[in-house]
Each structure stands twice: as structure tokens, then as C-alpha cells.
Design brief:
There is one protein chain. The protein is of the alpha+beta class. The chain folds into 4 domains: 2-162, BirA Bifunctional Protein, domain 2 (2-Layer Sandwich), CATH 3.30.930; 180-275, no CATH class; 278-433; 450-538. It has helices at residues 12-19, 52-60, 92-106, 147-162, 180-188, 195-207, 213-222, 259-262, 268-274, 292-312, 315-334, 338-351, 367-379, 386-412, 416-449, 453-466, 471-476, 480-492, 497-506, 516-527, 543-546, and strands at 2-5, 32-36, 76-82, 116-124, 127-136, 226-231, 237-243, 257-258. The strands form 2 sheets. The protein has a 5-stranded antiparallel beta sheet with strand order 1-3-5-4-2, sandwiched between helices. A hairpin with a 5-residue loop joins strand 6 (226-231) and strand 7. It is elongated. The termini are far apart.
């Protein structure tokens, strides 16, 4: 249940005209009163002998207790309380109880017999509007400071009492929600999202991996946005605003949004803090980006390192890695193949809420993740086939662990909304992983089933020796043949499968993994420098050629001639 406090107004009658009217898009149904300060206020929605003006005069009567020059300019208090979409439809009596509890909690009518006059209007199944005059019956002003926080607290108790969806407690770091006017405008244009939401995503995409003002503003322009900068007398940019080319107001002027109005971390000073560490401090031991596949392998490496930081780092450093993870998801979403794009965009959108908290981020420590985001952007779009598709699956497998770790960290800090958002992002990442991994895992599975029984038994023995506690679980999973094929590649390449198994399992707990075999497979391919995609299966020897003893009744084979090396 979400309470929203709106701007204080000056005209009670005008607000009531809207609440009892048809709505901007004929969305108001059966407007009527469900509660009021004295339980007896006239209802212009149900009583034909009552007008909206009658109700407005009744609510405004306490204003006359004050001299005209002492009356508050914005005396109309307006709030709405909305149930979650999945909640049951509350009765009028239940909404009346909700209204009385909210006005009491906010201090509008604390129950002392001299509170403000108020009324609760219902014109839809899922919400009510509260209207009050900000002068008490005794002529004093109400004590309604921190009313928004108080309303939130009371709504959490109401959810529990009525068995409604339990909304996570916020901390003031969420992005500003679209206004009703913006929502109605988007609906008129048959758009799924408002310009504010579309601009927020576009700006976040432009930030991902950027390293300077010039690069950031260039990306905004390349995305088709209109950009204005505020410049100090020194000539330095101190702020910016963006607008969509086709979004105009009633005066046919562009509708501009500053970065801070899109999200708290999108103001220019907050964006600059991300690249406070110069690009020269980024890792230089890796070659320049050479294609989407290599960029995704680097993403896996950066995510792997970030996991250790989130598990054991200081809060300010962890907060930086949690924020930078959002940049990686934004970059991955804008460069993903078509068959994973929708889920990856959904993951990035969900994680946006998880990327911020009140813990100040030490961004200079998260440059490995930011470099990974930059590499993803600069490497261009991936087509999702062959090595690129397999490398995408490899990166997504590790990012699921990273985002889940971020959710756990938020939970330990009691960041409830952020933890929930990270869990939702992880669910979308898992869906994208299943899509991306289907083809490369199928090829590896084919290679594994093509192995001779003696080879499969050999690799099963290696697994038992390396990971005795996990072996039975892994062998029972459908992904075991693909892992066996990977172990066989390591063996044929001269590597040590047992050592790689132990190293892959030791780098991170596996209890939360749904398919341990998949996780081990991708880690081993990464640690062993194997191609992300499955190679062509080696030709399988025939039973006769592989056997040293000829079948019964067959002629004996002549011994192979010896080969002598001549110096």
C-alpha cells in the first residue's frame, strides 16, 4: 500500500471538482465519500441534494478562525493511498479505516478532538484520496512534519493487519516516480513508459563505462536526445538537462529533465564521481578490446573479482561495486543479441533501484567493473552465436552470483527495497542465461555423450577425487556430460582437470547454484583458457581399433612397425 503526499493547494473546491469528476481519461468510477472528520460530511457523489461547493465550504470553515492575512496560502492538504495491483479489493468500510489511520498518523487529525477537517473520496477500486484543510478546529496549524514518513510507517502496519502485499520500506534513494500527468500523457500516446522513465534508461546507458564529460554528452546526443548544459562563468559544465525530441508541453516547448530529477545518482556531480579515478589507473595488463566475446570474458573476470570484494570488503568499497554492477548490466543490455535483449533490459531496469543506497560509494575502487562496462559498449553488439553466445552465457552465469551477492549485502544493511530489486534482477538474468546457454551447452552435451564409457568413468573418478562432497550431486545433474566434455578438453590440452575442479569450486560457494555442473563448466573453461564455445567433437575410435585384443575368431593383427628417431 503506497501513500503519496501531493503539493499543497489553495482551492479546495477545485480539487474536489477533479476528484468527483470523470477524470482526465474518464477513469473515475462512482466517486463517493468513504470517511470524514465527523462521520457526517455531506457526500456530493451519493446525495443529490449536496454539491461539491457544500463539502468545500464545510472543510474550509476553520479558515475563518484566522484573520485573512494570517491564513496559510497553501491550505489544502492532499494525499492518496493506493493498494498494490495484486491486493484484493477493499470495501468502503475498510478504506474508511485506512483513511482514519493515515490522517491520525500524519498529524492531520491526531484524535484530540480539535484536528483538521478532512474527507476521503473513493473513485476507483484500488485507491482513495484524502483532502484536508490545514487549520485545526482550535485555529492552530497542525503538526504534520515528517507526514510522508509517518504515512509510510502506518501503511506498513495496515498491510500486516489486512493481509495485503508487504511493501518494502524505502530510504529516500529511489528515483522519482512519474506523475499522474506524465502517466496519462504516455497512455494517450500508447507508450508503455513515460518520457521520464525512457530518459532515465537512456542516461544510465550513456553513463555505463564513460570516463569523461565529453564522452557522456556525446553518447547522449548519439542516443537522439536533446541536451543542454549549465555552464559556470569559468566555462565548466555544472549541470545538464535532457529532453526527448517529440516530447513537448502545452506551449509546444521541449519538456526538459535535469539528471537529478531522473534519479538521485544521475546529477552531473554524482556522475563525475564515478570516473574520479583516471582511466590510467584501470588495468593495462589486458589487450585492447577485440570483439564482443573477449569483452564478455573480461566481464566474467571483473564480476568474479567483485564477488570477493562484496563478501569481504568495506561498506564504501562494496557500495561502489554494487553501483558499478548496474553499469555492467546497462552495457550488456544495450549490446546483447535479440534473443536475450528483453530479459537483460528487464534485469538492468530492475537492478537500477539496487544500485543506490545511503552508503557513500568509493567509486575509485570499482574501476575493473567500469572497465568491463566500457569494453562491452566499445566492442559493439553481440550476435549471440558461436563464441559470442557462449561467452555471453559464461558472463551471465557469474553475474547471477554477483547480483545475488549484492542482494544479500543489501539485506544485511536492511536496504529492503534494494535487496528486493536485486533479487528481481537476478531472476531476469537467470532467464537470459538459460536462453544464451541453451545452444553451447547442447553442443557440449553432445560432445560428452560421444565420449567412450571408459573416458566418462575416468572423469567421474576425477570428480570424486577433486570434489568428494559435490560429486554425487553433479553426476546426477543433466549437465554432467557437458562438464565431462570440458574435463576431457582440459586433459587433451595437457591441463590438470582435478586441479581446475578444485580451483573452480574454491573461488565461490556453490550451495546457491541450481546447476552446479553448469557453474563448474564455465569456471573451468575460463580458468583453463578454453574456448567458450564447444569445439568439434573428436573422432571416436571404433571398438575394434581401440581394443588391444581382437574379437574371437578374427585374424591376429600384425604388430605395428617400430619407429626409430634418427638423429
Amino acid at each position: 500500500m503506497i501513500p503519496s503526499l501531493h503539493k499543497q493547494g489553495r482551492d479546495t473546491a477545485r480539487l474536489l471538482a477533479y476528484l468527483y469528476g470523470p477524470g482526465r481519461r474518464e477513469e473515475h468510477t462512482d466517486p463517493h465519500l468513504v470517511a470524514s472528520f465527523d462521520h457526517q460530511a455531506p457526500d456530493p457523489g451519493r446525495d443529490p441534494d449536496t454539491t461539491r461547493a457544500d463539502l468545500a465550504r464545510l472543510l474550509d470553515e476553520p479558515l475563518h478562525l484566522l484573520p485573512a492575512d494570517a491564513r496559510p496560502a497553501g491550505h489544502v492538504w492532499h494525499a492518496s493511498v493506493r493498494a498494490a495491483p495484486e491486493d484484493r479489493t477493499l470495501t468502503d468500510a475498510e478504506w474508511a479505516d485506512v483513511a482514519r489511520r493515515v490522517v491520525a498518523a500524519t498529524g492531520i487529525d491526531p484524535g484530540d478532538g480539535a484536528g483538521c477537517r478532512w474527507a476521503a473520496v473513493r473513485h476507483a477500486d484500488d485507491h482513495i484520496h484524502l483532502v484536508a484543510t490545514l487549520v485545526r478546529e482550535d485555529g492552530r496549524r497542525p503538526r504534520h512534519h515528517l507526514s510522508a514518513k509517518r504515512a509510510q510507517t502506518e501503511c506498513r502496519a495496515i498491510e500486516k493487519d489486512y493481509g495485503l502485499r508487504r511493501v518494502r520500506t524505502g530510504d529516500g534513494t529511489a528515483a522519482k516516480r512519474p506523475t499522474p500527468a506524465e502517466q496519462h500523457k504516455a497512455a494517450r500516446r500508447n507508450r508503455d513508459r513515460t518520457p521520464r522513465e525512457e530518459l532515465r534508461q537512456a542516461v544510465r546507458s550513456a553513463v555505463a563505462g564513460a570516463s569523461s564529460d565529453a564522452e557522456f554528452f556525446r553518447r547522449l546526443s548519439e542516443a537522439g536526445l536533446r541536451v543542454r548544459t549549465r555552464v559556470a562563468p569559468s566555462g565548466d559544465a555544472i549541470g545538464y538537462t535532457v529532453a526527448q525530441p517529440g516530447d513537448r508541453n502545452g506551449k509546444n516547448e521541449p519538456v526538459w529533465y535535469s539528471g537529478s530529477k531522473l534519479a538521485p545518482d544521475l546529477s552531473l556531480p554524482r556522475i563525475r564521481a564515478r570516473w574520479a579515478a583516471p582511466e590510467s589507473t584501470w588495468r593495462t595488463d589486458l589487450p585492447e578490446t577485440n570483439g564482443p566475446a573477449l569483452a564478455r570474458r573480461r566481464t566474467m573476470t571483473a564480476a568474479w573479482e567483485a564477488l570477493l570484494v562484496i563478501d569481504h570488503g568495506e561498506d564504501t568499497i562494496v557500495a561502489a561495486h554494487v553501483a558499478a554492477t548496474g553499469e555492467v548490466l546497462d552495457a550488456l543490455a544495450q549490446t546483447s543479441a535479440a534473443h536475450t535483449r528483453q530479459e537483460l533490459r528487464a534485469a538492468a531496469t530492475a537492478y537500477e533501484r539496487a544500485s543506490r543506497s545511503h552508503i557513500r560509494a568509493a567509486h575509485g575502487h570499482s574501476q575493473a567493473l567500469r572497465r568491463a562496462a566500457r569494453d562491452l559498449v566499445h566492442s559493439g553488439p553481440a550476435f549471440g552465436r558461436g563464441e559470442e553466445g557462449a561467452a555471453t552465457a559464461m558472463a551471465l552465469d557469474m553475474l547471477v552470483f554477483l547480483v545475488t551477492a549484492a542482494a544479500r549485502w543489501h539485506a544485511t544493511k536492511h536496504h529492503e527495497q534494494q535487496a528486493e530489486a536485486a533479487h528481481r534482477a537476478a531472476a531476469h538474468l537467470r532467464a537470459a542465461y538459460r536462453t544464451a546457454a541453451a545452444a553451447p551447452l547442447a553442443r557440449l552435451h553432445k560432445n560428452g555423450t560421444a565420449l567412450a564409457p571408459t573416458q566418462r568413468r575416468h572423469h567421474a573418478t576425477t570428480l570424486h577425487n577433486a570434489l568428494p562432497d559435490l560429486a554425487d550431486r553433479v553426476l546426477a545433474e543433466p549437465g554432467w556430460p557437458a562438464l565431462a566434455a570440458t574435463l576431457d578438453e582440459v586433459r587433451r590440452g595437457g591441463g590438470d582437470p582435478r586441479a581446475l575442479l578444485r580451483k573452480a569450486a574454491a573461488r565461490r560457494e556453490l550451495d546457491s547454484a541450481k546447476d552446479v555442473s553448469d557453474v563448474l563448466l564455465w569456471r573451468i573453461r575460463h580458468l583453463g583458457a578454453l574456448s567458450a564455445d564447444a569445439p568439434k567433437a573428436p573422432a571416436r575410435k571404433t571398438r575394434r581399433a581401440a581394443s588391444s585384443t581382437p574379437p574371437e575368431g578374427a585374424p591376429a593383427l600384425a604388430p605395428a612397425p617400430s619407429r626409430t628417431r634418427h638423429r
